[in-house]
Design a protein that fits this description.
Oligomer: single chain
Number of strands: 11
Number of helices: 0
Order of helices and strands: EEEEEEEEEEE
Radius of gyration: 15 Å
Helix content: under 10%
Mean pLDDT: 85
Low-confidence stretches: none
Shape: globular
Distance between the termini: 36 Å
Strand content: 35-45%
Structural class: mainly beta
């Protein structure tokens, strides 16, 4: 069962990816076993030798070889969870209703200014933030909030596996 991540009437304190608008829906997806994933992590299909495994895992730096952005993990997966090593366990994931859905993001690498709005950048290797100084196909910056926070979309061209 899905667990609340913040108390009632409490602000969400996550500094990771978080849905920005009402253009997201919670769905359950199978998640890669024995992999700790923090709440707010961008997730994508696991690709093994150009084959999709039907499980989501942490998103790479950009959508490559079919590992396109699928959503944002809505509940943390910890090594201490009862189902941590269970294959095809299902967890809640925020999924876009449209390619224009936007999400809050945290800056991990780079200097973020208003001049970065509309740049396309890589998702940082932690899958929790953006590398705003690194051009790539991970996300498009939509809004500047502060030097450490902004709003992005994941409306970049999707790729396909061989």
């Amino acid at each position: 069962m899905w667990k609340a991540v913040t108390g009632i009437n409490q602000p969400n304190e996550t500094g990771n990816f978080l849905p920005f608008d009402w253009e997201w829906v919670l769905r359950e997806y199978p998640i890669l076993e024995s992999t700790a994933i923090e709440e707010g992590t961008a997730v994508a299909p696991q690709i093994s030798s150009n084959d999709v495994t039907w499980k989501l895992t942490k998103m790479g730096t950009e959508n490559a070889t079919g590992a396109d952005f699928t959503g944002i993990i809505a509940e943390a997966i910890r090594a201490t969870d009862d189902d941590y090593a269970t294959a095809f366990k299902k967890k809640k994931v925020w999924v876009r209703k449209s390619v224009d859905s936007r999400a809050y993001f945290t800056v991990w690498a780079g200097t973020f200014t208003t001049a970065d709005v509309f740049r396309t950048v890589e998702i940082h290797s932690d899958s929790l933030s953006l590398a705003v100084d690194t051009a790539g196909k991970g996300a498009r910056i939509e809004e500047y909030i502060s030097s450490t926070r902004g709003v992005c979309s994941f409306n970049l061209p999707m790729t396909e596996t061989a």
